[in-house]
Write a structure and sequence with these properties.
CATH class of the largest domain: Alpha Beta
Bound molecules: calcium ion
Number of helices: 7
Number of strands: 10
CATH topology of the largest domain: endopeptidase fold (from Nostoc punctiforme)
Number of domains: 2
Shape: elongated
Mean pLDDT: 86
Strand content: 15-25%
CATH architecture of the largest domain: Alpha-Beta Complex
Helix content: 25-40%
Length: 238
């Protein structure tokens, strides 16, 4: 494994700090910047299964052992970085295949890693994308691995969390913040929520937002939550 280059390390850190639509890593030596044709964000599913399928579908076009070095670059739709060279470019390419033009965001809690997330590993010198996760083992795909595309290397959680991972990028849309009492999850809090919760507690087949409905916060939905919601609605200005 030789993906450590001093210039790459220095520029990689600069890019991570600045993070203002710069190319990851900053470099002047790429031949071409290409961009995949993408689906629009609202036209496809962002389940982990769909993300996996979209990434693995690229394996025919970018097979194991295909040369992929810092001469290869890719223009990314995720924001934060406008494009990537080498390993970053390949991760961005698979990321766009799965997420279209959804925006990316940075996070550092590696217990939150999901299929399709990009990890910046090896002290900010290498980018990989997560293909699948099974019992704390992360199967990845990567470019510029000994100068080639490589599918299927595995990393353990401990390896990812050993202090050498700089950050992770995800493009799954953020869940809307919880609104206690918004039982039907339509962002309004009103008597319809109370009616829906009463029906649910009485065993009707109605859909509810479990997090919003557990007003007592003990993890169960029952008459106590109905009573709390009634109090909450009574306390609201008419
Ligand atoms: Ca509601
Ligand atoms: Ca409860």
């Amino acid at each position: 494994m030789k993906f450590t280059m001093l210039t790459k390390r220095v520029f990689g850190i600069a890019a991570a700090v600045v993070a203002a639509l710069s190319c990851l890593p900053l470099s002047a030596s790429a031949e071409t910047v290409r961009n995949e044709t993408v689906q629009s964000a609202d036209s496809f599913d962002v389940s982990e299964e769909a993300v996996y399928s979209a990434m693995i579908a690229k394996k025919d076009e970018y097979p194991e052992g295909l040369p992929w070095t810092n001469q290869n670059s890719y223009s990314w739709n995720g924001g934060i970085y406008s494009c990537g060279y080498g390993c970053a470019g390949f991760a961005f390419l698979l990321s766009d295949a799965a997420f279209g033009d959804l925006p990316a965001r940075v996070y550092y809690d590696y217990t939150q890693i999901r299929v399709g997330d990009i990890l910046r590993i090896n002290n900010n010198t290498h980018s990989v994308i997560v293909l699948s996760i099974d019992n704390g083992v992360y199967t990845i795909a990567e470019g510029n691995y000994n100068g080639m595309v490589h599918w299927g290397r595995t990393l353990t959680f401990d390896r990812i969390n050993d202090g050498t991972t700089s950050y992770a990028l995800t493009r799954y849309p953020e869940k809307a913040p919880a609104v206690p009492g918004d039982v039907d999850g339509n962002s309004d809090l009103n008597m319809k929520d109370l009616a829906t919760l009463q029906r649910y507690v009485n065993g009707w087949d109605v859909e509810i937002d479990l997090e919003n409905s557990d007003l007592t916060g003990e993890g169960k939905i029952n008459m106590k939550d109905v009573a709390e919601l009634q109090k909450l609605l009574n306390s609201m200005p008419a």
